[in-house]
Amino acid sequence: MAYILVTNDDGVDAPGLLALKTALDKVGEVVVFAPDRNWSVAGHTRIMHKPLRVGHVKLLDGTMAYTTTGTPSDCVALVVLGILPRKPDLVVSGINLGANVGQDLTYSGTVSAAMEGVISGIPSMAVSLDTYHDGDFSYAAQFASRLVPTILEKGLPPGTLLNVNVPNVPAAEICGAQVTRLGKRVYRDVLIERQDPQGRNYYWIGGEPPTGVIEEGTDIWALAHNCVSITPLHLDMTEYRLLEEMQGWEISS
User: CB under 8 Å, gap of 24 or more: what pairs does 10-14 form?
Assistant: First the structure.
């Protein structure tokens, strides 16, 4: 039976984590190791300058989970480095509250935990639900549980993870699953300036939720058409076309 590590960036008490764990219990031996607080938009952060605490908590289903003061990436790293007696066969991160599409990947703690698994040579997957409010995680969890056996059977190439995004609609309205490429996010951030009681300026980065360019074949297009998006990602971020062109540049040392 496969040994599956479940983590997230919304924190160990997040409902998406429990939904994912419950669904994956049917396809493997699941261990939960998640942050003790929310690390959304943390990116691929690792805590290297202070100690990490590790503890145990009970999930709402009564099972035990590991938790840490560290980040989602720290959770995976701690497991790989020996906190648990076994190295997992698969890392599944999620279910995140909010889609992780396009350029979101550079910000996402959910995707970064899966990246940490890939760095350690473990097949990994990130799962997100396309809503920023309370959502129904049941379909996303069941879809993940159906995808896991295929990943374990077929494997993933080295340096590769799967990024799964699920529409926040009833299961009957899901129009299937598509293998997609990354789309282009459109961020609508604004700078909000305020003053504290001492008259000193402070700032919030606010604004409306991001949208995206709805181009066929992308993760953003799939969600807009109520399809599950599955995007294979590779950690090699080299731009090979520019690499070839730069061979002809006159660059002095």
Answer: 10/38, 10/39, 10/40, 10/96, 10/97, 10/110, 11/35, 11/36, 11/37, 11/38, 11/39, 12/36, 12/57, 12/59, 12/65, 12/67, 13/57, 14/38, 14/97
